[in-house]
Amino acid sequence: MNNLIQLVLIIAVIILALFLRVLWLRVRPKQTPNDDKLTFDVVPAFQFNGLDESLAGQVREAINRMGGAGLNAEEKYQVSLKALQPDSTVVINAIGDELDIIPTSRYLDRWSLIQLIAELQNPESLTLLGKILSKPMPVEKFKDPHKRSSLREETIILTTAVEAITRIASKGNTSALDLLLKFTGHKSLSVRRASVQGYYTHFGEGAREKLLEVLPQSDHYLLEIRKTNIENISPIRVKVSDIPFRTDKDVTNDVPRFVPKRDG
Amino acid sequence: MATCSYSVPDKNASGDNFYGPFICQQQYIDYFWAVYGFNGNKNYWDDGFGWHDACNTNKPLARTFNACYLLTYSADDYGNDSYDAPQNILQWGRRYVRESFDELRSFCGDEDTVASFSGGTTELYLSFWYEYSVVERAAILLHEARHEAKSHNATFPVDSVFGTTANADSNWDYQGAWTFEAGYLWWFYAAGSRTTSASRERARQAGNVIIDNAFATHPGFNI
User: Fold this and answer.
1) Is A70 at the interface with chain B, CB within 8 A?
2) Would the ipTM clear 0.85, i.e. be above it?
């Protein structure tokens, strides 16, 4: 009898050890090699083949300054935009040409071209913006879009195109308003949402009724999505239990003093 | 071992050209290295990733430092990183990343992933440095840090740009990684200091795409 009990206990211990081993293999941090090598080259972000070098340089400057930092970042950015205003139609045409040749995978750079159009607020850009928004949505390029999504990047570009139209619409341009109404039927939810909001804000009296006529029933809820300030929603919060207890890290809050600087 | 290469566009809108001169001071480099998980991981940041060239913003290390700098100093009163209200994620976000990250490592990665988090270790891959603006990188660090406390708990809505898997958050109040990422972008848009209207607009557009696509139930508001 004792031998039987011992045998059962030994088998139980072996099973438990195997179970713990399987559990450990599943939860342990991934052990990956640490000798990856990276090489790179630097390429011009934009060609702007149709522009003389001086104007091309000004356009590059304005785009570069979108990412400015420092006390005078916004001031310098606005100066760079103002310099383009006298030639804004030429610039917009050049952006159209650039979009035809820039690799689609350069999402941030493509976005910045649309953002520049939005800043110029020139009604001559409506044709190009309409063309961009009318193209079929591309197919997702990556295997698991949760981890990396090409459609996320394409959507940011498209909603910025809607923003560009909305800025022109805000000045009462009826062609811009017509475009916004058209794109309330876009395949992308975010484009539909942005177009609805833009139209609703700037059409004036009767906007809601017009949108209810045009939108399918399934999209009527888009009218209820409210553009708001972050102070008006439930705050993002952290609980004490969220913070891991770590003994192997010397964590300090002795942050270096920041000295505000002007760039350039 | 993997070898990867990248063509880095110069003078684009990412912000690296401008944050670079700011981070290139020893007290910042020392601070970021100590608190954001780099310490002990030199082997992951050499071989072209920037260890020997920490101010070169064409390389991943400096680009990560740029995100750390933005994360650390974008609030006006950056020194106050208390989690208690009325402080917001623009203020305590840097503390949250600091306290959640144990190890911060760089890899070539496969082309299908931007960043990952597991058991205190965050891994960054090629697209993190070269396809996102500085503010988006900071927001991604917060997304990954949030996974220390919370996994995703829902399936993406129909036609989400993030696919069909169970890696959405149920709603805004779940306070998961998507809320943290979109919330940081939103606060940067609303109150980010020493930046441009274009960077803030980028944050707004990126945040709105998350709000529209990453929650099983749409929050009902946007930026």
Assistant:
1) yes
2) yes
